[in-house]
Structure formats: structure tokens, C-alpha cells
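Continuing the series of single-chain predictions for the mutant panel. This is the parent chain; the variants come on the following pages.
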Amino acid sequence: MRQGFKQRDYIESYLRETRSHPTAQEIFEHTRAAFPDVSLGTVYRNLDRLISENIVKKVQKTGACDRYDYVRDRHNHALCSECGRIFDFCYPLDVAAVQAAIGEDISIKDADFLVVGVCADCEKRGDK
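Parent structure:
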């Protein structure tokens, strides 16, 4: 097996096992522990390939690094605007209602949404 496939499998396995929605840098650091010669570019190429194969999903945050999530069951994300943590949650999405709101400019094929708030830990610390 070629080294690239081992690295790809390692990255996929790491994302499957974690629920932390790591950044590419965090994935790189984790992968480098097992493959010291891996480059950040290799990690990005493998992430792009996993995304194109619908194995991994990019969770985009406004003004911050993208995070990555293993595609499991259909779910959405909640972002803490203070600490940046991302939480998974399931919520039924009424695609017909969203389509009606958008109009005929685009035909919806898939949808997910990001909810932004403050997590319980940040609220306890008194963050706003």
C-alpha cells in the first residue's frame, strides 16, 4: 500500500473517532505523530479527496479556520461565538419551507445550517 493511502486512511479514521471538529492544522499535528514526514499540503489534499467522496464534510465558520467533520447521520452544527467549539445537533429541516423562502432562483439539493450562540461553559465563566 502506498504511503498516501495509509495517511488518507489514518486521517479518515481520526475524523471518524473524534467529535471535536478539528481544523486542518489539528489534523496535521495528529497525523504527523504517526507519519513524521507528512506535509500540511498532503493533509489538505487528503481532506479534499475525502470531501469529494462525501466521507468528510467541511464545517465553515465565518472569520475562522474551517473545521472538518466525518459524515455520519444527517445533522447540523451549533457554534459557540466565544470559544469556537462546534456542537452537533439533529433538527428536522423543512426543505419545502426553505425552498419557498428562497424562491425559484435555486433548486435545493441539500441543506444544513449553523446556529451561533454561547455555550454553557462560556456562560458560566461570564463571557457574553
